[in-house]
Amino acid sequence: MNTPLITHVLRHMGIRPNFGSLQQHEHGYTLRLRTVPDYNFIYVIRGRVVWVIDECPHPLGCGDLVLVPPHVKHHAHSLTQRVTLGSVHVDVFLPGRQDVLSLLQPPRQQHVPRGSRLDGFFRGVMAEFARGDDDASHRMFPGWAHLIVHEYIAHNAREGLIHPRAVNPVVVSLLHELDRRMAETVTLPQLAATSGFSAQHLNLIFRRALGMTPLQYHLRARIDRAAALLREGRLTVHAIARQVGFDDAYYFSRMFRKQHGQSPAQYRAAMDSDSPSRSTAVKVRR
User: Fold this and answer.
1) Rounded CA gap, 201 and 210, in Å?
2) Cα(144)–Cα(20) distance, rounded to whole angstroms?
3) Average pLDDT across the chain, whole number
4) 190 sits in which H/E element
5) pLDDT in tens, 235-271
6) Which of 39, 128, 201, 273 shows a CA-CA span of 20 to 30 A to 180?
């Protein structure tokens, strides 16, 4: 089940896809001791291997996933001659550069059910690499990496496998309060009066935990909600503005453009035509 913290992460995390590969071996496999500067997902779809991370062995078979953290020594070897696995390297962070996976503490190793969305996304990126078209893989990899990371967090949240490190209870309480008041304009003095702490203290602890102030979080969450309503296409732009707490349609449009790079009307038109007018280019290392 999603908590306000996980909802916040899914809304606001940044994902930097670095590189990925498909590895198919017919005569065994050995990976020498190494470290990597980012998170490395290893997903096995054929054969059996052992990934040794920080001297702890992780036996992996078909459908098993292991996450190798940055700067941790690891090596691997196969238990079967034939091995097929996918490797995806990413950085995942909140505004302010907080490490998302360190914050959420998902399991290092898990079995992914065959036919699940997460399984499908891993097999999809591996099939892309198997085509052998390097230019196409270069273009498609960022999209697959974003799908994998989002579904990885959502899947583990649904399964109850995420155990976030301790977050200040005041921050958690603020997240609940801000989500409850999604359709309202909220001021920092109001939040301070409710929490019993000073406005400066609330800003400090919220920014330290999540990389933004409470009011920045609230504004982004309201705009995200407006974007979801625009995609549904049932309400007018003015009705949507009111539903997320904006009485001034011009101010709503200005804030929406600031976050999404286009006006609400342009955003809706792009969704209707299924051809968004903007894209985010991500450099993929090889």
Assistant:
1) 14
2) 10
3) 89
4) helix 188-195
5) 999 999 999 999 998 999 999 999 889 999 999 888 7
6) 201
Q: What is the pLDDT of residues 164-183, one digit of tens each?
A: 877 788 888 888 888 888 88
CB 222 within 8 A of CB 244: yes
Q: How, if at all, do strands 56-60 and 30-34 pair?
A: unpaired
Task: Single out the residue of 210, 92, 104, 102 nearest to residue 164, CA to CA.
Answer: 104
Tokens of 33: 């001791």
181 and 264 fall within a common domain: yes
Domain boundary among 158, 180, 215: 158
CATH of the domain at 152: 2.60.120.10
**Domains identified in the chain, total number:** 2
- Sheet containing 64-68: which strands, arranged edge to edge? 14-25, 83-93, 39-46, 64-68, 109-111
Going through the chain in order, the beta strands assigned E by DSSP cover 14-25, 30-34, 39-46, 49-53, 56-60, 64-68, 74-78, 83-93, 109-111
Q: pLDDT (tens digit, 9 = 90+) per residue, 91-102? A: 998 876 779 999
Length of the chain: 286
3 band by pLDDT with thresholds 50, 70 and 90: confident
Amino acid identity, position 42: I
Radius of gyration, alpha carbons of the chain: 21
Separation CA 207–CA 212 (nearest Å): 4
- Of the ranges 65-79, 166-180, 184-198, which one carries the lowest mean pLDDT score? 166-180
CB 21 within 8 A of CB 286: no
What is the DSSP code string of 54-82? TTEEEEE-TTEEEEEPTT--EEEEESSS-
DSSP 50: E
